[in-house]
Amino acid sequence: MREELFVSGRNIPNIDPYLNIWHWQIPIYLFLGGVAAGILFFAGVFTILGKENKMTATVKKAPLLVPFLLVFGLFMLFLDLKHKLFFWQLYTTIRLESPMGWGAWVLMIITPISILWSASYVREVFPNWDWKFDFLKTAESWLIKYRLWIAWPMAIYAVILGIYTGILLSAFNARPLWNTSILGPLFLVSGMSTAAAIIIMLSKDHKERKIMGRIDILLIVIELFFIVHLLMGFLAGSEAQINAANLFLGGKFTAPFFTFVVLLGLIFPAVLEIFELKGFKVPIYVPAILVLLGGLIFRFLMVEAGQITRFLY
User: What is the pTM of this model?
Assistant: First the structure.
């Protein structure tokens, strides 16, 4: 029987996966969405804990990047759309079973939240910044007063956004590699790890870097656990799932996956961060950049490999 890709309730014949436009727009979108989600989550949580003045880069500096990350990520998603002029139909057609619909609304909510959060800290990060209009100064005062109220929904929607980046793939039932519930938590943890890496690079406070370094080590351990769980789950599944796992266990993706994702993107940065916590002098940019590159390559490999896997009929 001809293999078919199930999208939005319609069966669409599959094309050669190597001709698929998903090769670069979607992995970049998933990566940026995960980073943005992680940054906003940490900013919200440390604000709720009352640590905003001790975690300056986490709460004040890093979130300034998020609106740009989200807008650029949405632009990548827009480039991937086949019928670009009809993107607005995601907001007029309500389908509770559609991950893309849920993601569109989450992005619609969290993007303005990130802009408001960033606006409330612009003058603290850039002392020379001046709002030209009085109503903007009034709005800034209101945002500063109610930051804690903003932090709660921001942290919650950040978690939803981080999980959504994995669910977006897992909703494609025709692809064995993506058809697993572990992708949501895995992409969430990976996004938080890459966010921690950016915060470490932006921070000038040694205590803050140590805190985020410890968090990143924990996230890396959890991410490795999820990866092992993912592969073991496939090996215990159907023939199609076993074939999907074999792409990373002796197949064409084994070398890049274990070299650039597991070794250089997770284990080696974790070792360097442990050395730094022990007092050894380690350039902070090295493990952070490796984590970021590992997270990006991981998404490219998952998208690429997922398009190759298929169920046998």
Answer: 0.88
In a domain, 31, yes or no: yes
Task: Note the pLDDT tens digit of each residue in 257-274.
Answer: 999 999 999 999 999 999
Per the listing, tokens 């990866």 go with 227
**CATH code for the domain of 258:** 1.20.1630.10
DSSP-derived secondary structure for 171-201: T-TT-TTT--TTHHHHHHHHHHHHHHHHHHH
Q: Is residue 10 part of a domain?
A: no
Residue 5 forms part of a structural domain: no
Do 185 and 166 contact (CB within 8 A), yes or no? Answer: yes
Q: Which helix (H) or strand (E) holds 266?
A: none
Total domains present in the chain: 1
**Hunting for tokens 């990047």 — which residue is that?**
65
Three-state DSSP class for residue 10: strand
CA distances to 221, 240, 257 from 295, in Å: 14, 26, 11
Tell me the one-letter amino acid at 296: L
